Structures are given as structure tokens and as C-alpha cells.
Amino acid sequence: xxxxxxxxxxxxxxxxxxxxxxxxxxxxxxTTQSGKDLERYLSGLSQKQNLLFQxxxxxxxxxxxxxxxxxxxxxxxxxxIEQLLPESEGVRQLISLDDNYQDSSKKIVSVHKExxxxxxxxxxxxxxxxQQRYNIRVPLFAIDDRQLTEDVGFMQYxxxxxxxxxxxxxxxxxxxxSIKKVKVGVDSSILSLEERDAILSEIDAYEEVAQxxxxxxxxxxxxxxxxxxxxxxxNALSKENFQLxxxxxxxxxxxxxxxxxxxxxxILITLLLAVILGLYMSHLISKPIQKITDAFDEISKxxxxxxxxxxxxxxxxxxxxxxxxxxxxxxxxAVLEAMKKxxxxxxxxxxxxxxxxA
Length: 358
Known about the structure:
Blueprint: H1 3-57, H2 61-84, H3 89-143, H4 146-165, H5 169-187, H6 193-300, H7 315-342, H8 352-357
């Protein structure tokens, strides 16, 4: 096994562990951000509900226009936040509820604008209705006809009932019927033909105005009823949103806690593996190097009989151990040869026997 392979493997393992920690950390951050996005989403829905209440309470077009523009901006913000919410069944249900919420919101804006338009028409027509009613009442009361006075009184009563107290078709019909009774009473009155024609003409005009204003008042009441229905829908949807958001928030909190536990576990595992890797690398590299160092200490003291253990699994250290062994053997041989050269040579003995024979 080569040293560079070990180091690369170690670095890859560390990088993998760091990546795991980073991945889990990102997941935890995204989950936390999802919780914040959910809070922003619910806050937007709450603001939207309050604005719808203000729109219903608005009584002029300027306030209505400002509120509807603000409502459009809130709707835009809600749609942007929807894109950031996590994919889940609960979130899909929440967005589906918001679609229904949006339908009710559009209905409220539409009918309230119609109501404000109707109120303008009503306000413009009211002075005419009041003046015509006065023009009819004064000359007829002057006749001192008990039945006719009573009929005119009913006409005034039903006008107020239809326009202000109970704006519905039944009261409008009674109002129109009371006007017709006044016309019958005028026909049989003691008025001159010219006076009758003038008053009858005034009554005919008044009947047209009454019919128009009655229809406006009825439509206004219908709009208010429709607004109440939509508000009830919004309140019901708000309750559903609240319950569903609690469940989603619980899921997000559970995910956050789970991510935290996983993150802590990954960090602990990373630290443990880092310690194990460090000890293993220390054992794998430091121990053979220490043996080589000890061998060099012995060699420096003149001990060439050092036997270096060649048990390392690292190719480079094994090669180094073998090189040192060969170097030590070579140095040992060189020292032996040098010592041989320094040994003194003994003188040859004379052959006295040979000299005596000579």
C-alpha cells in the first residue's frame, strides 16, 4: 500500500464526513427556513382576512381602491411564499384552502364594489324621491280626505320600510301597491281635473323612482347577505387553515428535531472516525519510522548488527527499511575490510635446518 494512497483515502474519508455534516446542516437549515416561511404565509393570510373585513366596512371608493391595491400586494406575497413551502400533503391541502379563500376574496371585492356603485346611485336618487313624495303629500293632505290621507301615510311608511328597514321584494310590492292606492284615491277625490292630472303625473314619476330605488335597496341587501356568506366561508377556512397549519408546524418541528439529532450523531461519528483514523495513521506511519530512528541510533553507536523489522504495510517505508538494511550490511562489510587491512603482518621464520645442511 502506497503512502499517497493512504493519505488520499484519509482525505477522501474526511471530505465525505465533512460533506455529510454539511448536507445534514443544510437540511436542518432548510427545515428551519420552511418553518419561518409557514409563519410568513399564515401571517399573510391573517392580514388578508383583516383587509377583507376593512373592505366590507369601507364606504367610499377611495378607501376601497387603497384597500384592494393592498390586498393585491398581499396576494402576490402569499403566492411567492407558496413557492417556498416544502412539498407535503399538508402544504398541498393548505394551498388548496387558499384557492377557496381566493375565490371568496374575489367575490367580496366584486360585490362590494357593486354595493358602493349602488349606494352612489341611491344617494343621487334619494333627493328626487324625497321631493316627489313631498310634492304628493302636501296637496293631498290639504284636501282633508281621511282615506286619502291614510293611503299617503302608508305610502310614506312603506317607502321607509323598503329603503331602510326591510329592503326585500315583499315590502317593495307593498310600497308600489300603496302608491297605486293613492292614485285611485286621487281619481275619486274632489280635486279639479287639472289638479288631478298634475298630481297623477307626479305619482307616476314617483312610482318609477320608487321601483328603481326599491330594486337598488334590495340589491344592496342581497350584496350584504352575500358578503356575510363569504365572510362565514372565510372564517371557516381560517379555522381549517389554523388546524392544518398546526399539524404542518408540528411536522416541521419534528423534522427540525430529527435533523438536529442526526446532525449531532454525524458530528460525533465524524469525530470518532477522525480519532480512529488518526490513531491508525499514527500506528501505520509513526511506528515504522520510530523503528528506523532507533536503528539509526544503534548504527551511530557502531552497532551494525541491527535488524530492522520489515513489517510495514506502507510500500515507501518498506522500501526505506530495505535500503537501510542494505546500507547497514554494506557499511558492516566495509568496516570489516578496513579492519583487516589495519591488522599487522607477522615476519617469516628462518629455515635454520636448510642452512645447517648447506
